[in-house]
Write a structure and sequence with these properties.
Pfam families: FAD_binding_4 (PF01565). This protein has 525 residues and is α+β, with helices and mostly antiparallel strands. 33% of the residues lie in helices and 18% in strands. The protein has three domains: 2-167, Uridine Diphospho-n-acetylenolpyruvylglucosamine Reductase, domain 2 (2-Layer Sandwich); 174-293, Uridine Diphospho-n-acetylenolpyruvylglucosamine Reductase, domain 3; 297-524, Vanillyl-alcohol Oxidase, Chain A, domain 3, CATH 3.40.462. Helix 12 runs antiparallel to helix 13 and helix 17 (439-450) runs antiparallel to helix 20 (493-502). The chain binds flavin-adenine dinucleotide.
């Protein structure tokens, strides 16, 4: 199955590389192809000669400059990427998947462009410094891109010089007794290059340690917007946000200097990078993350099935009651779960993980009791719809659970979160107190969300636990993140209206990369 999926994708990449000059570094148009008279193409920016100087300087650091990207040509060639997210995420050809596919690549929408003029494919810190100094001397906007997964397209900007981190060297060195600049020692750490993906770091660390900071989506950058926006993962409740697991950053600043930021060096910058949003303070070139000892864990998975069938065969009322029963149970139990529980839930499922011995995982017994006595007995009488038996599994390795070596750069794994529609993500934080003090209101809200528009089944993260133990002053993440119980997501417009109705304050929208100044549109969500 994997081969079948992988093969056509690889084929498309090789064909488009040779056919389309503006679609990637390989075979891209070189600057010398353009005579001086093309200056008008550069959107009022520096002349071709000046760009050529940058190209030359970058080449001294093994780095290249591609472009200029000319909107019209780009639009003509862009349709080929329709429906091809591997190209957009992995090859950085389409500059921002959402915007490119649905707005800026289709000339008839005439929506303007967010494409940069040139792309610096940087391969060293020195090259980044050169690019930044060039931009500041010539009054050119810098955009920084690792994967282009930013929901709002903050990794690209019209007329900018894009610093593309995809080409930046990977690191992956594992260090024992790593010391920060205060001299504090950490038992184990991994050095991650500024352009690495989750996929890279999972493979680099392998089975030696436990990477408690990585999110579910393997194609996300692990040092860029994900991290600097806070970094929520399947294990956050137990181990904290990704920013809570960072020891230090190396960052190239707007003045072209690269500095270390940690507890004792550039402490305010360290604080700012932990939640201030990707691309806000500089280009992150390296991160040292803490590594946890390899650990076994237990997973608990449960899901409803056949909602449509239930409605079609006249059992809609019972199905609705069953969902309500689940949400009522979850609202009652989730605020008080042991901190060793982490995971995600929705109206129709939960994927939970327990990092500790079975004897301590008493929630499994409560869950089974509830399932057998309250849910199953009361509502689940049909074989065509209902809920699967809770599945309890024991795992010895997080790396293997995440797919092991066969998941690395596997198109199927990388695309695991591909959503084949215009992404219109809304997210809200649900505060602990709100759930505990007003369980009936919470239930009404979740029920409305569950039965408005399409089924509300996006993964909603369980927060609290370790996330709430970290002081709000330790990072620049919005304080609400530290006092929330859940992060709620919705991907379609009807559900978004329910979110807006329930959450009157705009503060609750402070999720994902929405902390960044470039993401200020969050309030419109
Ligand atoms: C399918 C999908 C699943 C997601 N799942 C999760 C999840 O589980 N948990 C979670 O917390 N978030 C998740 N997100 C949100 C994600 O964290 C943000 O979209 C984030 O901005 C992506 O960061 P990136 O570096 O990969 O993307 P990019 O689009 O490349 O960059 C995002 C921002 O960071 C900046 N940036 C990138 N690299 C650097 C760098 N090296 N130095 C400085 N700035 C940089 C860019 O300029 C831009 O502003 C998900 C997003 C998608 C699309």
């Amino acid at each position: 199955l994997l081969l079948l999926i992988g093969l056509p994708v690889a084929l498309v990449i090789s064909i488009t590389r040779s056919q389309h000059p503006h679609t990637g570094e390989a075979g891209n148009t070189i600057l010398s192809d353009f005579p001086d008279s093309t200056d008008g193409l550069f959107k009022g920016g520096p002349s071709i000669n000046i760009w050529n100087e940058l190209k030359k300087s970058l080449s001294e650091y093994n780095s290249t400059l591609t472009g200029p990207i000319i909107d019209n040509e780009y639009m003509e060639t862009c349709e080929i990427f329709d429906n091809n997210p591997y190209m957009t995420a992995a090859e950085s050809t389409c500059l921002q998947f959402n915007e490119c596919r649905f707005k800026f690549c289709l000339p008839d929408l005439n929506a303007g462009s967010n494409l940069p003029t040139f792309v610096a494919n940087v391969r060293s810190e020195k090259a980044i410094e050169v690019a930044i100094l060039f931009a500041s001397e010539n009054n050119v906007t810098i955009s920084i891109k690792t994967t282009g997964w930013s929901f709002k397209g903050s990794s690209t900007a019209y007329g900018s010089l894009m610093v593309l981190m995809n080409t930046f060297p990977k690191d992956g060195t594992i260090l024992n007794k790593y010391k920060n600049s205060c001299g504090s020692s950490f038992p184990a750490a991994v050095a991650v290059g500024g352009g690495e993906w989750v996929d890279d770091v999972l493979e680099e660390v392998g089975d030696q340690y436990f990477t408690a900071f990585v999110p579910f989506t393997r194609a996300l950058g692990v040092a860029g917007g994900f991290l600097q926006g806070g970094g929520v993962s399947l294990t956050s409740r137990t181990y904290g946000l990704a920013i809570d697991q960072v020891i230090d950053f190396r960052v190239t600043l707007a003045n072209g200097k690269t500095v270390l930021a940690d507890q004792c060096s550039n402490h305010e910058l360290f604080w700012a990078l932990k939640g201030g949003g990707g691309g806000t303070f500089g280009v992150v070139t390296k991160v040292h993350y803490k590594l946890e000892p390899k650990t076994s864990f237990i997973s608990l998975h449960f899901s409803f099935f056949g909602g449509d069938v239930a409605h079609a065969q006249g059992d809609g009322e019972d199905y609705t009651k069953a969902i309500k029963e689940w949400l009522r149970f979850w609202i009652e139990k989730s605020p008080h779960l042991d901190h060793r529980w982490s995971g995600v839930f929705s109206s129709t499922y939960c994927y939970l993980f327990f990092f500790g011995p079975r004897d301590d995982a008493t929630f499994i017994d409560e869950f089974n009791d509830w399932f057998n006595n309250d849910l199953n007995q009361l509502y689940l009488s049909s074989s065509k719809w209902g809920a699967s038996l809770p599945k309890i599994e024991y795992h010895s390795s997080w790396y293997q659970y995440r797919g092991g070596s066969s998941a690395f750069r596997n198109p199927y794994s990388i695309l695991e979160s591909y959503i084949p529609n215009l992404w219109s993500v809304s997210s809200r934080l649900m505060e602990y107190d709100e759930v505990v003090n007003a369980p009936e209101d919470t239930l009404r809200f979740l029920m409305e969300l569950s039965f408005t528009g399409t089924t509300w089944n996006s993964p909603n993260f369980l927060l609290g636990g370790k996330v709430s133990e970290v002081s709000v002053n330790d990072s620049s993440i919005h304080p609400m993140m530290r006092r929330s119980l859940w992060a709620i997501y919705i991907f379609e417009s009807e559900g978004q209206k329910v979110l807006k109705k329930h959450f009157k304050s705009k503060e609750n929208a402070c999720l994902f990369n929405f902390h960044s100044v470039a993401e200020q549109n969050r309030q419109a969500f």
